[in-house]
Amino acid sequence: xSPRIRELALMALADLARHTFRTAVVxxxxxxxxxxxxxxxxxVRGLEREARVSLAAGADLYVTGEAFGRTRPLDAAMAxxxxxxxxxxxxxxxxxxxxxxxxxxxxxxxxxxxxxxPAVPRAGRGIEGPGEVLVGAEIARALSLSPRDxxxxxxxxxxxxxxxxxxxxxxxxxxRDAVVMGLGDAQDLFGRPGQVTEFLVWxxxxxxxxxxxxxxxxxxxxxxxxxxxxxxxxxxxxxYGTSGGLFTALFWAAFACSVLAMWVVLxxxxxxxxxxxxxxxxxxxxxxxxxALVALENGLSALLAAxxxxxxxxxxxxxxxxxxxxxxxxxxxxxxxxxxxPYRFGPALLxxxxxxxxxLVLTAALVPxxxxxxxxxxxxxx
Amino acid sequence: MIPVRAEGVEKVFRSRGGHRVTxxxxxxxxxxxxxxxxxxxxxxxxxxxxxxxxxxxLRPDRGEVWWGEDRITGLPEPRVTxxxxxxxxxxxxxxxxxxxxxxxxxxxxxxxxQGVGRRQxxxxxxxxxxxxxxxxxxxxxxxxxxxxxxQRVALARALVHGPGVLFADEPAAQVDPDTAGLVEAVLREExxxxxxxxxASHEALGxxxxxxxxxxxxxxxxxxxxxxxxx
Lengths: 382, 231
Hints:
The complex is a heterodimer. Chain A is α+β, with helices and mostly antiparallel strands. Chain A has helices at 3-18, 20-57, 78-83, 137-143, 183-190, 208-216, 229-268, 270-283, 287-317, 326-329, 347-373, 377-380, and strands spanning 61-67, 70-72, 74-75, 88-101, 104-111, 123-124, 132-135, 150-153, 156-166, 178-182, 195-196, 198-203, 224-228. Chain A folds into 2 domains: 3-53 and 236-380, no CATH class; 74-196, no CATH class. In chain A, the strands form 2 sheets. In chain A, strands 1, 2, 4, 5, 6, 7, 8, 9, 10, 12 and 13 form an 11-stranded mixed β-sheet that branches. Chain A has a two-stranded antiparallel sheet with strand order 3-11. In chain A, strand 8 and strand 9 form a beta hairpin. In chain A, helix 2 (20-57) runs antiparallel to helix 7, helix 2 runs antiparallel to helix 11 and helix 9 (287-317) packs antiparallel against helix 11. In chain B, helix 5 (118-131) packs across helix 6. In chain B, 31% of the residues lie in helices and 26% in strands. The two termini of chain B are 22 Å apart. Classes of the chains: A alpha+beta, B alpha/beta. At the A-B interface, helix 1 and helix 8 of A face helix 2 and helix 4 of B.
């Protein structure tokens, strides 16, 4: 680094410390816009990644029944027919539904066989027989449930379940409002004996298309919708892309307000800046040196603001559990969730924070300074 | 050693209300290299304006200013800045400081742009402030100093980079006689080293044989009335 640049950088650093109010207000304006943006997008990226991981660990094909363009139940007995299709390695039937429990809308999962059971940590034990359920953290909190407690659903109060275990908050997003039970129990709960909502099918590599065609052609299965892993992945991506896009749009509205606020603040200090620029020019500073000083000062200010914003955003989505922000991305979550949503601060997000800050602050600072620095010294200072 | 020359300098200020105030009308001066010029006159006679024009801080409406072979009134602003940085030092009369920087940092603000290290800058500031009796005030802020002390800081700042020509606007206007003597002694020392010195003040106190002098006399205030200069 040349001595001139080094001394200018040191002077810029000293200027930042001297103008504490200006630095603080500019930083606050930037943080007010950046922190929600970073926190929100970090959450979107985290959710997306978790979805991808789940997807990678999931089945190759998802088979659901279809009638009049809507989903319909499938006959559970079709599992055997699907198993017999060449290329199929494994089939699991599942019931996915929604049911109220104690005033909360729960995701009811009826699963069969150990292979389809979610291997996640839990308090208590696993399901060992009919009439036992595992409940998610939010449901457990809402209903004050713990292992060995009893649970009934309003739709069938006569059927009493025993809570075998509770998923901890960190078990995964899907588990928070879930009630997991055996397939037979779920069929009874929804009054659909012998029926399931979907089949999960694992196939040998390269057989997905062939197996899908053969399943569609099975006698008795009727009209089905088959989604493969790639299609589900694309839907996941589109979903998070939409919520990320909406959030970005909201962010830009907030950002515009923040820009105006910051420009007003910088406008208040324009008189002092003008006197400084006039003095420096009168003493023999070149225009490019004045601009370099202002650029370094504001560049450092923006970098500090961006770094601070990243830390604050992390505190929000990490230890702060994404309070008041998480429900925007996952419907049904309370304002302060029991555990934070997954989040991810990737390099692109961090770079965006820095670039946005720098662009905004440098534009706000350099344009007026450049105009001042081109004027004769005494005019710039008055 | 830089000679300074001005010919037919005119400067008119226009107020926002549309009034015209003629600050300088046809002023001409010449200071040889290593010379000493007093610009005197009553308050409001245009001394500061003339100094600003001579130092290239203000463009005249008419007339020419020369520093040696360079006609600075014909040069673009960046070239004038370049020359001023290399050749000139200017001690302002009015408070012109980086308000939040310490005295020694204010004194060496040009050296910072030239890449001179902090330690060396401080040493050079202390040297100049010591000459003017302000070494103990180096770590204070300008607003902690009296008007006279601030003027001496301005003089130290004008001298710290070793200029060939020094412009000092009322350098001893607000100081006691002893301090005025100190300021004058520093100006004389610089002049003895070959620095061309141009001083604006009410009276040419301390003038010596061989010094040049120009007295500006106001002959009217508004409406285009001219100011008369004599030398």
